[in-house]
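Lab meeting notes turned into a lecture example. A postdoc, R.K., suggested we walk through two folding results consecutively so the class can see how the record format repeats. The first protein's sequence and structure tokens come next.
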Amino acid sequence: MKLLKKKRLSELVAGEIKEYIKQENLQAGDRLPAVSELTNSLGIGRSTLREALQLLESQEVVEVLNGKGTFIKDVKPFQIRTSFEVENEKMFLLEALEVRIALEGKAVDLAVKHASKADIEKMEFYLQEYVRNLNANQREQANQADAGFHQAIYEAANNQLLNSIIDSIWDTFHEFWNQPFGKDDIFDQSYPYHESLLEAIKSQNAAEAALAFQKIMDSVKSSIEKFNQ
């Protein structure tokens, strides 16, 4: 388990560095901040950073030159994927979606019955944060708010066993909010159904909640199936 967590952290760090490269509009030949600056700003150790840089180097995103620093090699490899990689990711996401529909669908059903005022307020907060960050062009924060909304539903279900199961596979579910196919806006069109779902949970309307949830899942599935490079 420790190795898996360590690997996962290095992958997250690699993703943060990619996001930094995009936000700063760095180009081939540009240099990344020093190791000490990266470890401090990311709150990680040198070994984790080293693994993340090795991962980026294997993807030909950066080049580590001993004694000189880490330089951008190419910004395209993490924006363009082979058709084989895309099809593999599609299959993974569609299989994960089947499991998510089963578990989250039950969570929605239970949330309709058990959601407290605090649960509702938390869901409202995350949807507001999603819109606010989207309007501010803060895509990563918007996606985190979207994930927070769904996590609030799991908590509102008030079922410890269901939460335990979902928590055990959260890393898999998180991929829906972790720039699938390298895109951060692929599931935007499902947002209106989130509002409908929230209203149905607030009014304790199980049928409307199930319908809104199914529309979200159908939209997500359609976006995955239709994605082309």
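The second example is placed directly after the first for contrast:
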Amino acid sequence: LLLDQTFIAGIGNIYADEALFGAKLLPTRRSDSLTAVEITRLHAAIQQALQLGIQREGASISSYVKPDGTKGSMQDAVNVFRRTDSPCYTCGTPIKRIVLGGRSTHFCPTCQQ
């Protein structure tokens, strides 16, 4: 649901992964299973992830550069995105990668429920 641009525009893989980590939610959770508290937590985590992306001027993972030719630094501030098998910064559990809806997603199986 987070990657559905008709529902919430602007959230790509990096921000979805990071928001779900911030909200402590597994990417496999169905949206209709979330409690009101979890929805509030997810909303706050989405805002935080997007704000961090703005502060870090985007993510230069492949070819993205800013108008002045320099790179953004969001990719240097991620907790789970593209960190497969690396230890979680919070608990040390290896970050996992799965494919959902044809897209890769990364998460900590311990911190996210």
